Automatic annotation (TrEMBL):
Organism name: Sphingobacterium phlebotomi
Pfam families attached to this UniProt entry: Peripla_BP_4 (PF13407)
Phylogenetic lineage: Bacteria, Pseudomonadati, Bacteroidota, Sphingobacteriia, Sphingobacteriales
Keywords, ordered alphabetically: Signal
Similarity field: Belongs to the bacterial solute-binding protein 2 family.
This protein's name: D-ribose ABC transporter substrate-binding protein
Amino acid sequence: MHIIYRCLWVGVLLSLWIACGGEKSNEDKPKQLAIIVSTLNNPWFVFLAETAKEEAQNRGYVARIFDSQNNTSLESDHFENAVALGYDAILLNATDSDGSIANARKAMEAGIPVFCMDRELNNPDAATSQIVSDSYSGCVELGGLFVRSLGQKGKYVELLGLVGDNNTWNRSKGFHAVVDHFPEIQMVAQQSADFDRNKAMEVLESILQAHPDVDAVFCGNDAMAMGAYQALVAAGKAKDIQVFGFDGSEDAVRSIQSGGLSATVMQFPQKIAETAVVFAGEYFEGNTEFSPKTLVDVEMVTPANVSIYSSYGKE
């Protein structure tokens, strides 16, 4: 009997200990954020992911980065793991504007908010909110500079990014909204290089064989711009053909400083990442009403103002 009473007494004490905070409740546990990015093979996305992780940790959250390697199926695996492991929010840099919709919906249906960073999904209902650069407006401005730099006439090549990414088409459409109004500026080739530096170099090398007399190259991101410039250096044409990019990467800023690239458009991935984490925090505090899309301003970087910029931001 003494043993029975002793066991009952221990059980009571254990219950009291748990009730008084001896074991953390779910509310006491730090929130977990899954940061799912399209690829870590691009320094821009590495910076975006690491910035989001640092901001999350500064706010007391637990954050982990998942690399989708530009593969929607691998991205799907990451979402399934995030749902199964009970993550509290997902910050998504999507692999595909259409193909990633189903993945985002998995989390949303499981009650996990999804905040898109930089890459936009074609269905706004598939995410809680989307924080993206104003790529269209940035390339409208870049198109104006492009026209002036060519003196309103010449031949050019356009290197597109991933065809399944909205950024590819927003940038291209913004650029063409200006350039297409000048009939003496002729596009002789338009080809995808998947936002990849090495592929851009190979693609432009091939194009130059058919069109050696081009005057400029417009690239949908800085990785491709640097690859294109590398191809021009190898062909001995770097001083004759202008190259324009988009991102504001460290390589691009340095290249403009040294007389390489003609211009780029500076995105601000730090602001994008920090805004996504802030929105996640607001969601944790009970806010469920967010704007479907938040546009982050971009800025033109040229030899005239490059001194005030560093990689992915201002000095």
